[in-house]
Amino acid sequence: MTKRDEGFFSAKDGTRLFWRSAVPDAAPKAWVGLVHGYGDHSGRYLWVIDQFVAAGFAVLAFDYRGHGKADGRRADCLRWDDYLDDLERFYAKLEGAAAGLPLVLLGHSHGGLMVTHFVARGPRPSLKAVVLSAPFYKLAFEPPALKLLGARLIKGLLPSLHLSNELKVEELSRDPAWQKSSDEDPLYLHVTTPRWFFECADAQLRLAGTGASITLPLLVVAGTADRIASMPAARAFFDTIASADKTWKDYSDFRHEVLCELEKERPMGDIVAWISAHL
Question: Which residues of the chain have pLDDT under 50?
């Protein structure tokens, strides 16, 4: 029977963050650290966690600041690098839980942007491979110029003001059950703030030139119908990554939530097989 646990830990600045773990009965062959996307939280990845456990992996996931059960103003950050500080603390917890077993990081969307910056900072001996799902390196659409101007003005006056992100759940996944759960989940965010938007955009720009620092085995899974994160931009950055072992996999007609889509078993199976081959 799967052993599950959860609790809280402190960020660098004292913000309370949330974690959850799942460990198979038999000794796990590796630990997977799961980093959710913007507006989401670890509780919405239970199916993904269960697939890893069934394949013999232990999983540690967390809610970073402003998301899920973590503290912090919803959908906001004082600076984007606070997310990286949260990830650093999470990774230390992951290393402690793994007790010497190999580690893999899986980041989705905004979590993929976080993981990319994290691994570009330098090698981690315990980290054996990285998986990115629809990494959010650039928007797939251009916001209206007037809306951007308004956001800049608001950022100067009310940087943490909650604004609708105007995303429809059907733009994220074709799965009606996932769409319904997104609309009904009180922890799922449908808002953003001007400060987060511009901090995130700056973090995306700062990726330029960092691909040469990434040498770990890397798998990227992407939907060809992603309307949120630009997969051409993600592919362009992928091509700059120095790793000699990197794989890009497209899934036809999948939207942004690659692991919450119809036929999600396909990319999940590919991820499990790829990780297993890299341990």
Answer: none
